[in-house]
Amino acid sequence: MPGEGGFSGDAARVVEDRENNTVLLVVVDVLGHGKEAHKVAVNALDFCEQRARAPLPEIVHGLHHHVRKSVGLVLTLCRIDKEESLLRYISIGDVRMLLPKYEPMECLRQAGVVGYQIPILKERSRSLVDGDMLLICSDGVGDFAENLCDKTLRGGAQSLGRFVMSNFAKDTDDALCLTLEVLP
Ligand SMILES: [Mn+2]
Prior knowledge:
- The chain has helices at about 35-50, 55-65, 150-155, 155-170, and strands at about 10-15, 20-30, 75-80, 85-90, 95-100, 105, 125, 135-140, 175-180.
- The protein is an alpha+beta fold.
- Helix content is about 25%, strand content about 30%.
- Bound molecules: manganese (II) ion (MN).
- Manganese (II) ion binds near residues 139, 140 and 173.
C-alpha cells in the first residue's frame, strides 16, 4: 500500500521439499498495514516454513495459537504433491485461490481470522494437470477472473502475475498475487 515505506502485510513463501517431492505455498494477509503488519507476516511465514512437513490443519492450528497475542491474519496454505499431481489446501478468510485453466475453479474458503477465531479446518484437494496455472491473491487484488483469456494464460506464470498486479492491484490495500504453472 502506498505510503507504508514499502512494507507490506501481505507476504508469500514457497518451500520446496525435494526429499518428499512436495512444495508448500503460503500466502498471508495480516490485518492492518505497514511495518507492524509486515513483521507479523514474516513471522507467520517462518512459522509455516519450520513446520513445512506437518499436516496442513496442524500448521494452521499452530499458527492460530502462535499469533494469538499479536494481530490476526487470513491465509491460504497449500501443498503440492508432485508425484501424485495433487494440490491440498486450506483457505481461511479472503485470500482467493484460482485455477483458471483446465476445469476452471475458485477454491473454497472458510470464514475466520487466524489468531482470533478459526472454524473446524477442512483440508480440500484437487488434482493438477500439466499446464495448470494457479493464482493465489490477497483481497488487495480486485476481481480479474473475467479478464483472464487464452492470451494472458499462455504467457506463463510470470507474465500472468504481472498482468494481474499491474491491472488489478488496488492502491487502498496491500496487494499480492502468487502465480504458479505446472510444467510437464
Ligand atoms: Mn488485505
